[in-house]
Amino acid sequence: MRALAVAVAILLLVGAGAPAAQDWPQFRGPTGQGISADNRVPLEWSETRNVIWKTPVAGRGWSSPVVAGGRVWITSAVASGGSTSLRVMGFDAATGAGLVDVELFRIRRDQTTTNPKNSDASPTPIVEADRVYVHFGSNGTAAVTTAGEIVWKTRFEYESQHGSGGSPVLYRDLLIINCDGFDSPFVVALDKRTGRAKWRRVRRMPWSQAYSTPLVVRAGDADQVVSVGASFTVALDPLTGREIWRVGYPDGFSNVPRPVFGDGLVFVTTGFQQPSLLAVRVDGRDDVSRTHVAWALTRGVPHTPSPILVGDELYIVSDLGVATCLDARTGAPHWVERLGGNYSASPVYAGARIYFTSEEGVTTVIAPGTTFTRLATSVLDGTMLASPAVSDGSFFVRTDGHLYRLGESAR
């Protein structure tokens, strides 16, 4: 009954203004929180089982797949000579055949990211109708049609120490992006039709790196865009960029996980060196650091994978493979288990199950609930840092060399 209630709630949420349930059009899916109502997905797979197709992908990139309109979209950085081509690629969701491969920007090799774990194509695209929006950090942002025609391109100057990681988010006619460099970080909203800036909000001091993706939440009768940065998380009016509230953590920086939201609480992680997980009530104003933090956790908090909220439980997995289930309202732990491996990809909920994928290509499946129940373990070849997508009864998974569609072979 619990899993059914969760699935019904998800279907209602997806049907209320979010993209169609069969699509996964942005980082972490229709709601941006890693949740799918699809109950036809496979429990397990291997290189020889439940692989509908497997397609080689040129170049290097850790952008997650997105799926819409029967196509799968990723970005990739393809090195050639002394330069790197930053590209958007579209594949047929039914067959894996390549359909679109367009260069949007070209950078010198000495402009590439300096962190070996990152790539020059880590932010995830967004698909809406016949537009695909792609972001390569300070190397450029663009809109293309689903046929591969370039609509607009733009660039913003900021110094990113380890490359880019955060993906954009769409809100009405705006494409909202965290531009977090250690010299002059800011949040910007672009007109999605033209690429021109509609508003720009400079981050508060002290300035430092962050790599997170904003999340739009509903607080009372108004929307907020929650933007995680170094030292502060802020909630902004998505139409104007006006700050609504902020919560501080002076020692936090290089934040990666995307926040999740439920029951009036937004859950954010504070980044390096010692990360904390904060549950913040979203009905505050101005500095809410001392008034609206419902609870905080300091053990087993991830640097990279995002949390996932299923029912009344919040699930996290640390970069070193320790998974924790918490009471979302109080922060009290229900269980802590070591999954094994190293983790960068964010977990997903589908088929009334939670899937955790390690960098080593191992996916551990558990049943949601206050008791730890491991259901299956699957392995694919290659390294996996990108988060899976869910669409049409299948997982779409990216490794360091391939794109997969995983589904029940007999269906």
Question: What key phrases describe this protein's structure?
Answer:
disordered N terminus; 411 residues; single chain; Methylamine Dehydrogenase, Chain H; mainly beta
Overview of the structural elements:
This protein is mostly beta strands and 411 residues long. It has one domain (2-407): Methylamine Dehydrogenase, Chain H, CATH 2.130.10. 3% of the residues lie in helices and 43% in strands. It is built from one helix and 33 strands. The chain has one helix at residues 2-15; strands spanning 51-56, 66-68, 71-80, 83-92, 98-108, 126-128, 131-135, 141-145, 150-154, 169-171, 174-179, 186-191, 197-202, 215-219, 222-228, 232-236, 243-248, 260-262, 265-269, 277-281, 286-287, 293-297, 308-310, 313-317, 322-327, 333-338, 348-350, 353-357, 362-366, 374-379, 389-391, 394-398, 402-407. The strands form eight sheets. It has a five-stranded mixed β-sheet, with no helix packed on it. Strand 11 and strand 12 (186-191) form a beta hairpin. The protein is globular. Residues 1-21 have low confidence and may be disordered.
